[in-house]
Structure formats: C-alpha cells, structure tokens
Design a protein that fits this description.
Elements: H1 2-41, H2 43-54, E1 55-60, E2 67-68, E3 74-86, H3 94-105, H4 109-118, E4 128-131, H5 136-144, E5 152-162, H6 169-172, E6 174-177, H7 180-183, E7 196-200, H8 201-205, H9 207-210, E8 215-221, E9 227-234, E10 241-244, H10 248-257, E11 263-268, E12 275-281, H11 295-303, H12 312-315, H13 325-334, E13 344-346, E14 349-352, E15 355-358, E16 366-368, H14 370-376, H15 379-389, H16 391-400, H17 422-429, H18 435-442, H19 452-464, E17 467-469, E18 474-478, E19 484-487, E20 492-495, H20 500-513, E21 530-537, E22 559-566, E23 573-579, H21 585-604
Parallel strand pairs: 2-10
Antiparallel strand pairs: 1-8, 2-3, 3-4, 3-5, 6-7, 8-9, 10-18, 11-12, 11-23, 13-16, 14-15, 17-20, 18-19, 21-22, 22-23
Length: 623
Amino acid sequence: MKQYTKTADKNWYKQRLIRSMFFIMSAFVVLIIRLFYLQILEGEEFRRLSENQCIRLQSIDPPRGLIYDCNGNLLVDNRPSFDLSIILKDAGSVERTIQKLSGYINVPDSYLMSKIEANKRRASYKPILLKQDIGRDTLASVEVHKFDLPGVYVNVRQKRYYIQNQSAAHLTGYLGEINSGELESERYSGYRAGDIVGKFGIEKSAEQFLRGERGGRQVEVDAKGRVVRVLKTVDAKPGHNIYLTIDRKLQKKAESLIEGIAASVVVMEPLTGHIFAMASNPSFDPNAFIGGISHEEWNQLISHPFRPMENKAIQGEYPPASTYKIVTAIAGLEEGVINKNTTYYCPGYHKFGDRIFRCWKKSGHGTCNVVRAIALSCDVFFYQVGQRLGVDRLAKYANACGLGARTGINLDHEARGLVPSSGWKKKRMGVPWHKGETLSVAIGQGYNVATPLQMAVLISAVGNGGTLYKPLILKKAETVEGEIVYEGKPQEIGRLPASNRTLSIVRKGLRDVVSTRGTALVAKVKGLEISGKTGTAQVASRRTGDSGRKKKPPHLKAHAWFVAYAEPDDPKVAVSVIVEHGEHGSGSASPIARELIKAFMMRNTAKQSYTQNPEDIGGQPDA
C-alpha cells in the first residue's frame, strides 16, 4: 500500500511537471510568433512609426533669386522673416496652447484657431502656419514662453523685399501663397501647399528661374516636438538672379512725369525691342502683399477708379486715335489709293451720305497731301483714304502692323486690342458693317482699341525701317556663381506691310509733326530730331453741332496719345505715352515723351546738352 502511494505521487508530480513545461513552451512559442510578427512582418511599419515619434524631416525653402535692372542696380531683395507655426501632434491640448499663445503675442485666439481649422485635413505631424513675419518682439515673447507652448515653433526663412516700393511694381509684380488650382497645374509640379509663388509681373513669368530647389534636414525631437539635434542637412539651392532690360533711373523719371495722373509710358529700343522703362500710374506697393493683404486694402485697390492693379501699358485698351493714321497712310500708299502727290481739300468737315464727319480743326486745313495730312493730323484727308480703302483692307494692314494681337512680351495678362472688320462685326453683333463706320476706323476711332505697348512696337518699326520686334523685358538669368543660364535675344515677329518708299513718305510726315508746322511742336528739342504722332481718343461721341468747347466732366474727356522715336536716321529710342482723360496729345502726352527722350539721350551722351527751344513752346491741338 505504501509502495503504491509513492508511485502515485511520483506520477502526479510528473504530470504536473509535463503540463507546466507544456504551458511554458506554449508561452514561448506564442511570444516567438508575436516577435516574428512584430519584428519581421510588421517591422518596417513599426520602425516608421517609431521614427516619426523622434525623427522628423523639416523642409528648407530656397532663397528666391534677386531682381536687378540692366545696370545691376538691385530692385528686389530678400530679408530674414520669422514665421510662427504649430504641429498639432506635439501641442497636447490645442485649445489651451492657442489660448496661451494668444495672450503672449496679443493676437486673437479666434484668428489662430481659424488658421488651424483651415488646415484641419493636414497631417497632424506637419506644421501649420499661424502667422507670417511676426517681428522681433513677438519672437522674443514666444521664445521666453516656449516651455508653455508645446508644438509651437518659429521658423526663419527669407522674405521678399521690394526696395523701390511702388516703383516698377507692375513689372516686378508680387508673391502670394500657391492656391489649389495652381497646385493641380503642370506648371507648378513639385510645389506644395503653403509654398510662395509669383502671382503677377516678372515674379510670375520668371518663376522657373527665381524659384530655386528645396532643401531639408532630418532632426531628432523630444516628446513635445522640440528639436534635440540635427541628424542630416541637405542645403537648398538658391534661385537664379535675373536682370531686366529696364533702366532704374529712366523708370523713375517716367514715373515722376506721370505722377498724380492716370497714365502709362513705354520706352523701347527700336533696333532690339528692349524695354528701357514701362510705367503705369497709379501704382501699388508689392510689399503690402508679402504677409497677406487684408480684405479692406484689397477692396480699396480694386475699387479705385484709376485701376492701380492694372498694368496700363499692356492691359489698358484705348482707341489709338490719330496715331492710327500711320496705318491708314501705309495702307493707302501700298494699295495705290493715294501717292505722295495725291491731295484732298479739307474745309473742316467731310460729308458722307446724310452724315457730316468733322475735322478736329473747325476751319479746315485746306489742300493736303499725305505728308501734310500726317503733320497736321487732318481728319478729312484720312476720312477719304479710309472711304476708298474699305474696312477690310484697313484691317489687313492693321493686323500686319501688329495691332489686334499680343506682342508676346514676357508678362502675363497682356491684352490683344481689337482690329474691326466686316466679318468681325457680323460674327460679334449679327449685323452688317456700315460704310460710314469705316471713316471713324480710318482715324483710329470706332471699334479700334490698342495698348500703349502695341503702339510702341509700331512706332519702333516705323523708325527702324520696318521690323517689328518682340518687346524684351528679361535681359538674362544667372546663377549665384555668375553662370548665365538664359539670355534674351532680339526677336523679329514680323515686318510692316510697307515698302521703303512708303516708309520714307510716312517718316517725312512724322518728322514734320515735331516741326514748325506740326501738332507736336511742344515736343521739339534743340539738338535732337524727333519724329512722332499725336492723338486724341474720344471717350464720348461728339454730337452734331457740338463745337467741343463745352466743358466736359473729367471722366468724359478724351485720352491723350503721343508716340515718337529719335533720331530718324539712327533711331535710339521710341516712346509711347497715353494720358487718360488728358484731352490733347500735343498738350498732355508729348511733353512727357519729350522729357523721356531727353533723359535717355543725356544718359547715353553725357556731354551733350539737349534743351527745348523757347520759340517752339506751343503747338496745335490734334485730332
């Protein structure tokens, strides 16, 4: 019995030991399987999650390229900026952190929360920009209280600085945050939400040169998102510096001449297409857009009656008025409707059907050939030329002269202008062309519209012998080391539809415009030969019997044109000026052109003194 009990106890202990061993072995098997799953099957994922807890990738924005004028004068620079951001994953209680931050920097918490709300779909470990360019006092306050502000940090980056403020603003343009539409565009491939891009002017059109390449760094952070150490850095590559064709001094001169009025000026080199100055007034300060312009400021700009956000040189469309007589003269001579000896008598009006078309000079110009008609801007002469040509032949020559089409300048939003024809009117309005409308078109009125830049290209072509050049604003782009990656070259875009004989006749008339008998005597300068054409673009039609002496409200006064080049035998510079509601080109626009031509010539010939002849002051109104 005793032996049996011993044997039974031994078997019982043995069974317990086997069960215990089995349990222990099972536990080890489960543990090994679990470790295999975690380390082998899901190792990469857990490693990624682990690194996201302590290692972060931070983007480094590249310094944007600088912008210079043709002489190397700096127009647009960069300066350091402090941007305030938050990483929600590290912020703990976001509402509590924002309330503290609001008190420290004196910014409403509702404003800060609105920034977070606008980016609520953003990954929690990615920074959300709360406020740009916070200033040194705000920076100091955040740094002092940084232990109370988990997830809040300040990023230092380059910010654009427009040294000249409003000067050349329509050319340089401004920057803004990339929008969703741009992000979806192929043009902005590789960009991210929150990136700053060019929105207007050369900042936009030369984005590919100015942008640079993004860099980054790998950093280790603690549980509150504070950087412990930098593990690796890939430096950003700065954007290319660009040089414009404009001359800063001439640009400022142009802007000073149109200060206080709604006007635009283009100064161009006839033999290359280089733009030396392009001014549009009123202007705006692109620095106001850097930190994000307020709704109130934006509404003030877009509701301004003189449209400061519009680059009038390329976006403003005006009836070309008597400057268009250059086209009518070319068409008449080339089509054989007139020759240099053809004359028409001007009694001050022209009767067509049951309508009376008046000349700007009530008493008339008497007998005129084409040279005299250009010099005196005789409407009656060009009424009759236009009547014989017809609108479609006029349209053919106007199109060939570069009107009704974009010039191709390297700036966005350039307007096309309009060259009317019988087909255009039928398609646009569903009614036929009336022959009487051709008379208005022949003197640059009616449906005709053109931009100051188009007229600068046209007058340049007349001056240089017939070549239409594409306006050039971007001279070159180069790396920070000085390697040229782009260089603008003169580019022909066509030729005037005129023989040398026709051009010589037209050029003689334009030279006489700025002479003892022309409509732009006020533009005459001692020691210089200037050729040009005045124009007065009617805003409101003149009623029959209206002498034009009745005082009009400012917004109904005519626009004043003057286009010119100097010198006729070797043209160095061409100018196009439009003064909105300036009435007569001879009184408002031509003095501006005169001063710009003088300034340009004095710049290139420092020893030569150019002055206006005292006896030449005056001149006649123009059509």
